[in-house]
Backbone:
């Protein structure tokens, strides 16, 4: 059997949902898994994160440059955490056979502090399952690096059992710095995981990484096992990633994560915020939401504590479509990078309530003006209402079996700032 056949079977066995954006060398992989086509890579990863929150394992199958498009939620998920495993299947093209670049995906492991698995001909199945278990163990997306050299090779049919794990979302009592600290501690433990992984074998020089030939086999290519430090000859496809990262040390242990109580305060909406009636209604309904960047992220803090997760600018729509079914997003975030996801949701008629807080400015960064999003939402046939129209708000804040967009218009009070509440 060929590598692409084995990886496709493994993805179908070990994940519950698969998403793809075609491109060499993973187009065939997407076809074999019958993966759902998505409007772009960012939306695909956000769907997968929504699946994770709902207890479903998910795979996102894209080519190397596609990772650039989903970098924001990819990195944000490290601090936010996840529940069920998410694997980002990256098809690299080391010799630019059918690509405009030979970008090496392994460097995202270093940038985002992700576990990176690059299977060889004997570990296609165990590589996929190990990546998913690592995602759940370290509460972040795992990256599976594939090259044409593996996908076209004859590989072993070595099935392994599926063992579902469970990650964790960051504690909502932590400050953002506290979440970073907690994520860093998990990253530190990732080094011992790589050191003891049974995927790697040590049989002397030369060493081979992934599909590259060699007596020693290095499959956990990030973080690198400490044994790799003594190797002189490492063969790998792409840049000299393994050679350059030998001897990398884990971060030093940090103090316990900082809580808002440790810091002494939390932040919430402005005292005269026009959008409080909508938040009060959601609170009364005990609805969990996915919030975005901007003011909507304050739904995660007291007194509302509605937000389940926030994976960055424009991410709430697709994540919510696969989890809570309610997204809160500002007008700027919608136009910045949420609109593509909303188009995809409407094309697929997914059940979602998208609440857009339209204040005509970027309130968190200095009140810069924002384009009116309503003119670009004709396809969604949105309901538009004033922020103080509680009757309409109560009628429209409801999840149905179809997508629905509610634009709530309000004006930020001049001279106001987010309220700081001391403990």
Residues:
């Amino acid at each position: 059997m060929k590598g692409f056949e084995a990886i496709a079977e493994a993805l179908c066995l070990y994940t519950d949902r698969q998403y793809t954006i075609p491109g060499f060398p993973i187009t065939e992989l997407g076809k074999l898994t019958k993966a759902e086509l998505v409007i772009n890579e960012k939306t695909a990863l956000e769907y997968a994160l929504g699946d994770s929150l709902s207890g479903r394992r998910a795979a996102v199958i894209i080519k190397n440059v596609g990772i650039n498009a989903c970098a924001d939620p990819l990195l944000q998920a490290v601090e936010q955490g996840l529940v069920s495993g998410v694997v980002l299947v990256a098809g690299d093209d080391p010799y630019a056979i059918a690509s405009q670049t030979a970008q090496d995906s392994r460097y995202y492991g270093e940038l985002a502090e992700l576990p990176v698995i690059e299977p060889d001909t004997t570990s296609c199945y165990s590589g996929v399952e190990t990546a998913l278990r690592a995602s759940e163990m370290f509460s972040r997306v795992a990256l599976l690096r594939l090259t044409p050299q593996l996908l076209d090779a004859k590989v072993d049919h070595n099935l392994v059992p599926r063992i579902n794990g469970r990650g964790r979302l960051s504690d909502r009592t932590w400050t953002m710095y506290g979440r970073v600290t907690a994520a860093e501690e998990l990253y530190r433990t990732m080094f011992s995981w790589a050191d003891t992984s049974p995927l790697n074998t040590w049989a002397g020089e030369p060493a081979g990484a992934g599909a590259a030939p060699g007596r020693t086999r290095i499959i956990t290519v990030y973080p690198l096992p400490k044994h790799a430090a003594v190797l002189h000859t490492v063969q790998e496809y792409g840049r000299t990633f393994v050679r350059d990262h030998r001897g990398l040390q884990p971060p030093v242990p940090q103090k316990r994560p900082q809580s808002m109580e440790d810091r002494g305060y939390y932040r919430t909406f402005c005292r005269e915020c026009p959008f409080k009636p909508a938040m009060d209604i959601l609170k009364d309904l005990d609805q969990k939401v996915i919030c975005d960047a901007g003011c909507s992220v304050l739904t995660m803090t007291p007194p509302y504590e509605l937000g389940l997760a926030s994976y960055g600018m424009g991410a709430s729509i697709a994540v919510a479509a696969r989890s809570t079914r309610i997204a809160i997003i500002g007008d700027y975030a919608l136009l910045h990078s949420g609109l593509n996801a909303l188009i995809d949701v409407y094309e697929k008629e997914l059940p979602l309530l998208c609440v857009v807080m339209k204040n005509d400015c970027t309130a968190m960064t200095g009140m810069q003006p924002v384009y009116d999003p309503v003119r670009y939402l004709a396809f969604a046939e949105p309901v538009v209402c004033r922020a103080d129209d509680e009757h309409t708000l109560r009628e429209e804040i409801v999840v149905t079996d179809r997508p629905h967009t509610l634009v709530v218009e309000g004006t930020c009070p001049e001279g106001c700032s987010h309220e700081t509440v001391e403990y």
Summary: The first strand starts at residue 17 and ends at 20. The chain has two domains: 3-244, 264-422.
